[in-house]
Design brief:
The complex is a heterodimer of chains A (296) and B (103). Chain A has 296 residues and is an alpha/beta fold. Chain A has a domain of 189 residues: 2-enoyl-CoA Hydratase, Chain A, domain 1 (Alpha-Beta Complex), CATH 3.90.226.10. Chain A is built from twelve helices and seven strands. Chain B has a five-stranded mixed beta sheet with strand order 1-4-5-3-2, with helices on one face. In chain B, 26% of the residues lie in helices and 33% in strands. With 103 residues, chain B is α+β, with helices and mostly antiparallel strands. The chains are: A alpha/beta (296), B alpha+beta (103). Chains A and B meet through loops of A and β3 and β5 of B.
Chain lengths: 296, 103
Amino acid sequence: MNRIPGKSYREATARQRVAGLLDADSFAEWVGPAARATSPHLAALGLPCSFDDGVVVGQGRVEEAVVTIIAQEGQFNGGAVGEVHGAKIRGALQRAVRERPTAVVFCIDSGGVRLHEANAGLLAISEIMRALLAVQGAGIPVWALVGGSCGAFGGMGIVARLCDAVVMSEEGRLGLSGPEVIETVMGVEEFDARDRALVWRVTGGKIRRTLGEATVLVEDRLSAFRAALESLRHSCPVALPRTLDALQAVQDQLTARATRESDLRDGQALWDRLGLGADAAWMDTAQFNRRLQELA
Amino acid sequence: MESFQYDLPARPCVALPVRAELWGVVSSGNLEVLVETGPPPDQCRFQVETSAHGFSEVWQAVLEDFVTRHAVGGLSFSIHDAGATPAVVSLRLEQAMQSLKAP
């Protein structure tokens, strides 16, 4: 669990992310691998299990402030949420309500529900959503980090958007239906899931940042995600209010956006309209952020 | 899935007892290994669950080689394998050894 400066967030495992995001040696894991809380469903199907069921939960510190941290392992079954995996996340969130950390750091790297676990996985996702809202109801902000190879899709895409802030890298992806799902349901003319550039123009960090769905766009480095956490302590210290009026205002904004931008096919069309430049997709993160700032 | 356990004679580990530590990830061609304090100091225990059938002799050869290279008596290695090659198995075991810490 080395802390390597400049190390890619995307390439790191969940455990390396936890070590790289928190103050050195501050992490204390809950229901760690030695507890062997493995998936009974995968075992019944004769499939390999993981000692942590693909998610690391516990407590640590960011600049001395106590945080609850949840990190999904995208390499294990696509970070998909099974019964035990989901129960660990829900338990960590419920514990956060009792123990009142400064924030919950949620490293999402998941395609959504683990299909092998069917209804148990779906139920787990809704339990996570309810527990996350309870954390926010207690005034504790939840910060999502999306920069893993699996992105945040399906139910975990919704969970990401429930969070008070979303930190993304350009490499991160956020959406509801994943590219392959859209292609399967709607046909390849509607969406070619093998067109990587298209996938990123529609779901990647830059378009999410442009639309305001990602709060911060950072470079794909563990240290950059860590720096974003440090600044969120100051810019997003409490959970956003969830009054009916506030929700209605967001609903109105989204409705207006859907009408205003209904003819736009992808990120480049939006960047063209905003005057961001034809080279928006190739700009590095700092340049892209600077251009967005200038246009704001 | 195929499961087996090997108890091999080994030189005692000097770092006992150790904090449980997990290395690697269960993904295609990879594996995870959980190191814990376990058997008597002159024994090393390997519990392997693998998705690849029919490779127990290769496993035994890799693990025997590992035991001759390191003082791992008193340690238990629990492995979940998703078809890692012998080289990757050796690499993960080496990483786990380097990470050994007191609890």
